[in-house]
Amino acid sequence: MRIDLHTHSNVSDGTDTPAELVAKASAALEVVALTDHDTFDGLAEAVAAGVQAGVEVLRGIEISAQHRGASVHLLGYGCLADAPGLAAELAHVREGRAQRVPAMLANLARYGMPVPVDVLARQVGDSPSVGRPHLADAMVELGYVADRREAFDNWLADDKPIFVHRYATELKTALRLIRQAGGVALVAHPWGRGSRAQLPPELLAELAASDLLDGVEVDHQDHDQATRADLRALAAELGLLATGSSDYHGAGKQEHDLGCNLTAPEVLTEIRRRVAERGGRL
To answer: Among 66, 160, 163, 278, which residue has the least CB neighbours within 10 Å?
Structure first.
């Protein structure tokens, strides 16, 4: 069974509609999870498309969290979308995303790359979760950069000139909210792009011991083979689930094709068991 537990539609920062994503997934996968950033809004369309396409769609989300000022992304599976604590916090996170946009537009203009509001709006579309990838796509459209990677590497990454801080949920608070909503929580690409220093083994061990963290995403395109081996060994030592997934964004992210990394069926079986035990819905 081919299982991909991390994908994004244009409801957040992917380029496919939920239905388009699921149609593509049906050619390569038996199971796919939609994990848009900080919103559940694409799930109904994706699940319905899965019924038509013959692929099982799992309900997921990727939540923007932080630990001591460093960004941490959490994958939540099976959370009840109407759980009041989680719903309120996600609204706060999305508000923080939107509030920093004017400052980032001002920074772009200051560096000679003005982005008209209508160009940005075209990239955002109906997404309730505005993000830097939308700004990157606007920069591509206007000819300032060749692709999203160049936009982030030179301008939009956390240490680059256009970046503006925004609100993100404290890590342990986000983990508790996922649990309270009936979900299973994993850290997405925990050691990608130099982030091992922000999420050292000691911190992962603390989270595992607190019974807040269920697992880590091991097989991810941002992890080289040595990193995967280290992380897989640590997960086994700590009793954490280890998943693999594509982090698919459509045309918005290169070398992240659907199914390029997969999750073992027995890991999904355990995720299903925990979601059922906690009263969530996968």
So the answer is: 160
